[in-house]
């Protein structure tokens, strides 16, 4: 009796010769049995079905069904490559290169394990370029969206110093820490946004479905309604009659906000400046920008990138245009001979502790080590602030919704109380 066993991506055993042209390969799914009668199945790239059958027979597998892999109806192009995937790619490359695996083999292994189609194709393209004689920095420079200027600069520095695997591990650590910090920031902003959204949805439901029921009752009273009740009833009539217009304006405002935020540097700078002044949230954004600045500068400086060039590269990594402009100012001051700590002090954005630790690091010749400590401290501050915000927002949501719902309930019952008092 045959036993069924799935074989996931038998790439090590069922790949075509290494001299293959990847552009001509087609993914196939196949089923077959080995010499023991055990059923096997897998997914392999090959030029055509006949060559794949021959390869399977060579490996002792009697092929049954061999057919091209069906394309999904949706998302066939794959999702965009995420920063987390780039961080994991860096970690895998560093680990395998440290273990002595050749770069091309490492890239082939990484490509074979990718579920994201776009990521898989990108890694295969990088491998093909390196096989053609390009360096890793030249290969990844063809993908500037996934590998930003900072990443490419660090790889160039690592190649020049002959410590590419060490630099890749540093990049992996950096990317993982930055992504964790971004996650915390998104969490911090998610709670207030959810509070506002829930409040708007609850108010809309009450105005559209609940208030009109009370309005029918009030018509039988024959008395003038209190001003507060009239306000709520008026808002309800507008929502019931013009709900489509209100919905269109709301959606249009959201799209306009997103559009101008992405396309207008002036609007983005205005938003960043405003959010830094918001209580609690502003402090989190300040600490986040300082942490990202410190960690990014430490990584680039440790990799051997010249200080002025490093400052020019990391400006956009702060995540806030206010700090981005401050970093450019620091770069200009350092370029004419000012110490980093003095240039930081002139911006009036960095706390005294950060400036002092930077000064100590410069004097001791350990600027990168001191900046790593600053980054760790402020990352912990962000973690604590986000946790505190989460604890604060939960009761605030209840209070805001309670005020909205309670206000409308009181407004609806005021005529009943007034009528009862006249009886």
TrEMBL record:
Biological process annotations from GO: protein secretion by the type II secretion system
InterPro entries linked to this entry: GspF/PilC, T2SS_GspF_dom, T2SS_GspF_sf
Compartments (UniProt record): Cell inner membrane
Keyword hit for Transmembrane helix: yes
Signal peptide start-end: none
Keywords from the UniProt entry: Cell inner membrane, Cell membrane, Membrane, Transmembrane, Transmembrane helix
Annotated TM spans: 189-211, 242-260, 397-417
Residues covered by the Type II secretion system protein GspF domain: 89-212, 293-415
Domain of life: Bacteria
Gene Ontology, cellular component aspect: plasma membrane
Gene3D superfamilies on file: Type II secretion system (T2SS), domain F
Family from the record: Belongs to the GSP F family.
Protein name: Type IV pilus assembly protein PilC
Organism: Pseudoxanthomonas wuyuanensis
Source lineage: Bacteria, Pseudomonadati, Pseudomonadota, Gammaproteobacteria, Lysobacterales
């Amino acid at each position: 009796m045959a036993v069924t066993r799935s074989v996931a991506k038998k790439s090590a055993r069922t790949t075509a010769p290494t001299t293959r042209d990847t552009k001509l390969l087609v993914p196939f799914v196949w089923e077959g049995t080995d010499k023991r009668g055990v059923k096997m199945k897998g997914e392999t790239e090959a030029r055509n079905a006949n060559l794949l059958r021959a390869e399977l027979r060579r490996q002792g597998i009697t092929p049954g069904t061999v057919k091209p892999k069906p394309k999904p109806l949706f998302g066939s192009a794959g999702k965009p490559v995420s920063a987390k995937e780039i961080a994991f790619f860096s970690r895998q490359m560093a680990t395998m290169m440290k273990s002595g695996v050749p770069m091309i083999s490492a890239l082939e292994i990484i490509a074979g394990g990718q579920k994201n189609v776009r990521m898989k194709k990108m890694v295969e393209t990088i491998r093909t370029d390196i096989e053609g004689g390009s360096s890793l920095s030249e290969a990844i420079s063809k993908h500037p969206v996934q590998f930003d200027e900072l990443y490419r600069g660090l790889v160039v520095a690592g190649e020049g110093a002959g410590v590419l695997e060490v630099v890749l591990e540093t990049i992996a650590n950096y990317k993982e820490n930055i992504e964790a910090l971004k996650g915390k920031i998104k969490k911090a902003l998610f709670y207030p946004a959810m509070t506002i959204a829930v409040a708007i949805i609850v108010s809309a439901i009450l105005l559209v479905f609940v208030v009109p029921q009370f309005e029918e009752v009030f018509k039988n009273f024959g008395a003038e309604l209190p001003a507060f009740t009239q306000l709520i009833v008026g808002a309800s009539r507008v929502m019931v009659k013009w709900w489509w217009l209100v919905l269109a304006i709301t959606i249009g405002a959201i799209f306009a906000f997103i559009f101008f935020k992405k396309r207008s540097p002036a609007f983005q700078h205005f938003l960043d400046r405003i959010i830094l002044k918001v209580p609690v949230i502003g402090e989190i954004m300040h600490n986040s920008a300082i942490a990202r600045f410190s960690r990014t500068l430490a990584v680039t400086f440790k990799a051997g990138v010249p200080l002025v060039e490093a400052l020019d590269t990391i400006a956009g990594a702060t995540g806030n245009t206010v700090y981005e402009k401050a970093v450019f100012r620091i770069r200009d001051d350092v370029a004419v001979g000012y110490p980093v700590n003095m240039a930081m002090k002139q911006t009036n954005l960095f706390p005294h502790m950060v400036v002092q630790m930077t000064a100590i690091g410069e004097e001791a010749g350990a600027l990168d080590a001191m900046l790593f400590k600053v980054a760790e401290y402020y990352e912990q501050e962000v973690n604590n602030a986000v946790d505190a915000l989460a604890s604060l927002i939960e009761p605030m949501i209840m209070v805001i919704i309670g005020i909205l719902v309670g206000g409308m309930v009181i407004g609806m019952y005021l005529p009943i109380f007034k009528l009862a008092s006249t009886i």
